[in-house]
Amino acid sequence: MQTLRSNIVLFLSFLLLATNFSYAQEEGIEFTMNLSKEKLGLNERLRVDFTMNKDGDNFNPPAFNGFKVVMGPSQSISSSWINGKRSFSKTYTYILVPTARGNFNIEQATIEIDGQTYKTTPKSVEVTAAVDKPSDQKTVDDVADESLHLVAEVSKGNPYLNEAVTVVYKLYVSPNISVTNYRPLDNPTYNNFWSQDIPVTKHTAQNGTFEGKPYRFVVLKRVVLYPQKSGKLDIEPLSLEIFVDVPTNRRDFFGGRIYTQTSKTVSAGKRTLNVKALPEAGKPSNFSGAVGDFDFSVTTTKTQLNASESLQAKVEVTGKGNLKLFQLPEPELPSALEVYDPEHDEAIQTYSTGMEGKVSDNYTIVPAFRGKYPIPSISFSYFNPDKGTYETLTSNEINIEVMEGPTGSTNAAAPSANQQLVVPAGDQFHFIKLDANLSSMNQSCFLGSRSFYLLVFLPLLLIPIAIFSFKKREAIASDVVGNRIKQANKLARKYLSTAKKELGNKEAFYVALEKGLHNYLKAKLHIVTSEFSKEKITEILKEKQVDANDIQSFIALLTSCEMARYSPFSNVQMQKDYESASDVISKLDKQL
């Protein structure tokens, strides 16, 4: 009976242990605190490690009453796969020195993992009087922790919206150790910022100081940020795994110091910017978000030309600021001028201080009628963060004079406000004849005559003719694509004519020849200037089933126009290219 009772007790104990083990396996999450020693002298150091087997958030260390933190927290992460199972460990390490003798408690630390809060078990430490030979010599990890510091230097902590902020990541290394390699563990994503990395081509060590001590530092990363919203914005930390060689107290056979390699995880820490919103007071109505210091201009390639010729109008902003993050103002052009969609051009360099360069919109303008056309001045507004004020720049008015061409009814210039109608004081009615020379009318009856019926029925006959003519004109006017094709044909003939006149003048000839070829393609293939690449032209012509030799000849002409900018071309070659252009256009025209 006694034996049976003992067996039952053993079985229940085993069952309880198995249940606890199964519960621990299901729980699976561990968060522990480890001390390097539980008794130390007043002149010794204490190492405290908080280790978890799953990554968490909101780590909260204890107060460390009775101790002073001389280093930490430093992070170390290890992850591996063994037999298909992942092993993970993350440790926060602190190095403490006691401030007084006595018994002290290292209280609980907390962390959140998967929405649950985990706590460590408190541990007690006894601090005695100073000892003659401290037993807590610095370990390799201690030396590495104290000798490595990753710092994120921010140019401005309180910038304006869309003002450039430069972040420079520097790794400070003590002369006592040497870095062999590093790899990034977590790169910032820079949410709510427009970002541009500035490549660091050479990692050159420089002398500096960190917390008053001599260090060497290396610039690892540069990035320019433009905040896209106001308020407090966080810059996520950059984390690196650094591989270092740390000297030990051991020496080799020849007396040289023996080094030990270790790896440490360093983080630059999270930085917060307080981004100021742009002031509402004094904000211009045409402000489009430009922030920086800029110049503004509106220019044209010519101010006098003939109808069906073209000119280029350029709206350009140059300077330093967020050049890629705003829109250029649009010019207000007279309706009598045909304007093509602008071609946007950028020449921007991003330096450590921000973007610099220029942006422009290029408009192609083709007048159809003779006359004078004013291009009114336009304004560009931007915010200058150095002055803290808005500034507005205004372009000059440009007058375009079309010398030759058809006269349109819309070209009649309206009298200006300060013009007055002048009435002559003399015989302004002298052209009216006062002496009537009357003759007697024919007394034959008009009613029922041939003229009478002609006048009665002629308007009825003209009505269908008028309706047909009106619909024809309306169809022609609504055919925008057809009208542009006709205009492009005129331009192609014009540029080929100009090229013929410029034979002997290399640069002007090939510019005119290239424009003529391009405008011919506009007319026949209905493509815009932005699509003018050799590959695109070849692809479209093949789709149109154009002869391969003609395609090759056309591409060769474009190549000659490009090469002429950099190579000497003879008059014979120019004459040959002109004749070839006429021949190719004729052949393409038959096939298209």
From TrEMBL:
Residues 1-24 form the signal peptide. The keyword Signal applies. The chain crosses the membrane at residues 452-470. Pfam families: BatD (PF13584). Keywords: Membrane, Signal, Transmembrane, Transmembrane helix. It comes from the Bacteria. InterPro entries: BatD. Coiled coil: none annotated. The keyword Transcription does not apply. This is Oxygen tolerance.
